[in-house]
Amino acid sequence: MKKTSIALLIAFISFSCVSKKKYLALQQENGEIKSELLKTKVAKDDLEAKFDKIQARVDTYNSKIASLKQENDTKLDAVGNIAVISNDTKVKMRETLKNVNAEKLASAKTLKDSMNLAVAYNLEKTISESNMNDDDDFAVNINETVVMISIADDMLFNTGSYRLSSKADSVLKKLADVINSEPSLDVMVEGHTDARTINTEFLADNWDLSVMRATSVVRKLQSKYSVAPEKLIAAGRSSYQPIANNNSKENRAKNRRTKIIILPNIDKFFALMSENNNAVANNNILD
Questions:
Q1: Which of 176, 283, 191 is nearest to 240 (CA)?
Q2: Phi then psi for 139, rounded to 5 degrees?
Q3: CA distance 46 to 54
Q4: Rounded Cα distance, 168 and 166, in Å
Q5: How many CB atoms lie within 10 A of CB 278?
Q6: DSSP states along the chain
Q7: pLDDT at res. 16
Q8: pLDDT at position 7, please?
Q9: pTM to 2 decimals?
């Protein structure tokens, strides 16, 4: 009987020891699981916070996109890295391009190319309506989007002078009408002389004469014909770009000329369109 009791006691003690070890192991495992669960919860909360921020940005962008879609007439399309152009402007441009030579139109690969053609067409039309091409006072050459107008010396100045003559007004009026027909133009006025030397109280040489003549034209275009001064450039070429030999009176007369170079500034054109689009959008908001 004693042996039996001792055996039962040993078995009970052994059983108790094993159970305690398992309990401690389970308790440690439970702690580790709780720790991992806490880490997971923290990570989840962090991800949810980041997601909320991203969702808020998405909602803002979607709101902006929806607003632009509602204002269809002022919806903006990107033009390369230059600016934007509205649907209204594109419609007007397409109407203009219907009149452009089909071969030229086929060469336009980008929206900027198309706008170049539209501006060039408008310039050609304005020059045609001004009868400048039919006037012997002007020599007009249009090369793609660049317009070059050469005006004979005796139509603007007296010999050896940089002061505009009375005959200059009618000539400069036609020129100003062309320049003012398109806001996005840069206009260079070049003075050219013949090869004969000049030296007076006010003029040291032909450089002075050519620059002063260009400046006189620019000032008159600005002051009398309301051409925006920021569009104008005055330059003098002296006698170094002749179009004829200086060996006769007739040839020297050809070399004495004022050259007007009209350059459509497409970047400026798109900037103007962008300003117009913003103005329309602001008016719609006020309404």
A1: 191
A2: -120, 110
A3: 13
A4: 5
A5: 14
A6: -HHHHHHHHHHHHHHHHHHHHHHHHHHHHHHHHHHHHHHHHHHHHHHHHHHHHHHHHHHHHHHHHHHHHH-GGG-EEEETTTEEEEHHHHHHHHHHHTTS-HHHHHT--SHHHHHHHHHHHHHHHHHHHTT-TT-TTEEEEEETTEEEEEEEGGGTB-TT--SBPTTHHHHHHHHHHHHHT-SSEEEEEEEE--SS----SS-SSHHHHHHHHHHHHHHHHHHHH---GGGEEEEE-TTSS-SS-SSSHHHHHHHSEEEEEEEE-HHHHHHHHHHHHHHHHHHHHH-
A7: 53
A8: 55
A9: 0.59
Average pLDDT for the chain: 78
CB 111 within 8 A of CB 85: yes
N residues, the chain = 287
| Residue recorded with tokens 């001064």 | 229
The average pLDDT across 89-118 equals 75
Residue 80 is encoded by which pair of tokens? 């390369």
Alpha carbon distance 183, 116 (integer Å)? 14
Q: Which two tokens stand for residue 19?
A: 């159970």
Q: List the beta bridge partners of residue 157.
A: 164
Closest CA to 98 of 76, 112, 114, 79: 114
- Report which residue type is found at 223: S
152, exposed or middle or buried, with CB in 10 Å at 0-12, 13-18, 19+? middle
Query: What is the distance of C-alpha 281 from the center of its chain?
Result: 19
